[in-house]
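Lay summary. Proteins are chains of building blocks that fold into shapes, and those shapes determine what they do. In this project we predict the shape from the chain. Here is one chain we studied, written as its sequence of building blocks.
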Amino acid sequence: MNVAVVLAGGKGTRMNRKNNKVLETICGKPIISHIIDILLKKNIKTYVVIGQNGELIKKLLQDKVEYIFQPTPLGTGHALKCACEQIKDKAKNILVLNGDGPIFESALIEEMLDNVGALKLLIGLQNEEHKFGRIIRENGNIANIIEAKDCTQEQLAINEANLGIYCFNFNILCKNIAKIDRNNAQNEYYVTDLVKLYYNQKLKITGVCAKNYFILNGVNTIQELNKAENEMRKYINRKLANNGVRLIDENNTYIDCDVEIKKGCTIYPNVHICGKTTIGENVTIFPNTFINNCTLHNDIFIGANSVIDGIDLTLSVKHGTTMIKD
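And here is the predicted shape, written in a compact code that computers can read:
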């Protein structure tokens, strides 16, 4: 059996917000829910590591997952150590993901769990930023990961970056997790230190290239949150266009991730469609309209400047209509 562990025990102080950063929303859904929903759709038993501020995460996810408590936030390696101590399942592989890195494509999960060996990790090409750890190779083999804050200038020039998603053979992981230490700039236990340990033991380490996946890693600031929101909206809009939905102005149309829109629809600018909304075929929605938690049936039109909330709608409505279910 494969299991997944989502690391959500950090404080997220750089976000400078009241809530845990994994509860911030991207396209109408909390960041962590993007991850959990995909894992559950793949029928992967999922554990979430939480810290002192984890009650709101439990309130959100309820009994969809099991919880592992990390009493002190001492890094990703410490969170994973807590998980290894508490997971009682006879797990074959353990997929490890950060709770602040939303995933939008389930195909990535399948590839990460296929032919794992001792460790499989996700690799991307480094951009101009320096926040990602660098992949160190020896004779072409993955030998180490150096976190960006611990890198020399020469290491920062390496273009292969660690994107923070791993799949471990569970038994091998449990034998090695206690061997890592906190001898680094952050004084934390790093998951990435396991790579060097594995390499020295001549264990099989493989990398998956992230270039074919739509993935974001590490939403730590408001700027990164806004970037994730914008990228997700582009992704949603592309999928709708491929399914026969015309958006007159993609840059000014806001459609949340759980909205379903069928083919033949036309949506004008400044339309916001939110919540668990379902829209049938050949529906036209004119500008400056807000729709939330509604069902719109086939072949109707919604006039401009309308507000429709919580309605099962079978008939067209005029411009400026407000319909809110009590």
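What the prediction tells us: The longest strand covers residues 160-169.
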